[in-house]
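Example record

Each entry pairs one chain with its bound ligand, adenosine-5'-diphosphate.
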Amino acid sequence: MFSKSSPQSLGEGDTPVQADFPSFARFSRDRLSASDVYLSNSVTEKAMIVIDVKELSKRYEQTVAVKNCNLQVASGEILALLGPSGSGKTTLLRLIAGFERPDEGQIIINDRTVVGIARLVWVPAENRGVGMVFQDYALFPHLTVAQNIRFGLRNTSRKERQTRVQQLLQLMELMPCADRYAHELSGGQQQRVALARALAPRPPVVLLDEPFNGLDPELRPQMRREVARILRHLGTAAILVTHDQEEALGIADQVAVIRDGELQQIGTPEDIYYCPATDFVASFIGQADFVPGIVSGQHVRTEIGVFPSPPHIPPGPVKVMIRHEAVTSKPGGIPATVEEREFLGGEILYRLRLPSGATIHLEQRRPVHWAVGYQVPIKVHLPNVVAFPDSSSEKSR
Ligand code: ADP
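C-alpha cells for the complex follow.
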C-alpha cells in the first residue's frame, strides 16, 4: 500500500534553506517549496513503508480483540481504521503505540522491529518514535500551550526547543494562544495543541484515536482537512481510528475496515465503496441495499434486471449490492411501491418495495412528491456489479 503521492523532497543539488515555518492555511500538496521540505520530516524521494504490521494478534481471555492483522502505511499516508464499537480498533492502535503486548506477530516502525514475539523484541512506547493524539487531547492543564508543545522536546537543546515550538505555533496558527492554558482554549484549538505536541519531536508515525470526537460536528470537516494537510506536508505516516465513515472516506488514503478483530478489507476509499470485499463492508460503508439474484453463466438475473455476472462468483443464489445512487425513476421501468419518504434537505430519500418484497432506496434530487403507496417505475444502473453468495437463500431452498 503506497500513497498515490509522496511528499516532495529536495532534488539533487538543491540546497536546503532555512525559512519561516509557513502557516498551514497556505499548504498545498502541490505547492511545496524546498524550504518547506527542509522543515519536514522526510527528505527521501519515494514514499517508504513506515508502519509494517505482520500477523498481529491479541486476545483478552475469551475475547480475540485483534486477529492476524496485516497492514502497511507509507510516509505521508493516512490510514483510517474504521469499524463498529468493540471491533478492535483501539487495541490495534495501542499495540502499535506500545501500550499493549501482542500474543503473536511483528510490528516494524521506520525499518526497526519494535515487537517481534519470535525474537522476543520489545521496544517500549517512549522509544518507538510514535506520536499519539488521544480522544480527550490529554493536555497538561498546568502548562501553557507553548509549554505543552515543548514537553515532547525534553531531550533537545534549549535553542532547538524554542525554534521548534515557534514553528509549530505558527504551523498550527496557535501563536495568539501560546501563553494560554487548556481551559482557555476552544475544542479546535485544544486539538491543534495536542497534534502540535505529538508532532514536536518529528515522529515518523502519528496515531490518532478518534481525534475529532470532542469537536462540534460543524467544525469537524474543516479540522480534519487541516490535520490531513499538515500530516501529508510533513510526510508523517498516520493511523486514524474512527467509527465515522464520512471522516474515514474523506481524510484517508487507505481505509482499513475491521470487524471482530479481523481486517475485512484495506483499500482506497473508492475501492472500499465501489468494490467492497464482503457484504459487511458493503453495508457498513455508505448506503447499500441487497436484492436477491441468481448467477448463471455470464449473467446475474434479478427482478430489477439482468446484469453481467461479477468475476469469481460461482453459479447459484447471490445478494446483489445496490447503492442508492444507482436507482432512478424512469417511465416503463419496474414498478416499485413507495413505503417511506424522508426529506433530507437537498434530496428526498424514498424507500421502495419491489414486487418480491425486497426493499430498495432511491434518492430524488428534484422536488417530486410521491405519496406512500404510489407506484414508481424504476431503473437500476449497475456499471460494476457487486454480488455476494447468498447462503441464507441456499439453506431455505
Ligand atoms: P474498539 O476500539 O473498536 O471499540 P476495542 O479495541 O476497544 O474496540 O475492543 C475490542 C474488544 O476487546 C472488545 O470486545 C473489548 O471489550 C475487548 N477489550 C479491549 N480492551 C480490553 C481489556 N483491557 N480487557 C479485556 N477486554 C478488552
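The longest helix spans residues 220-234.
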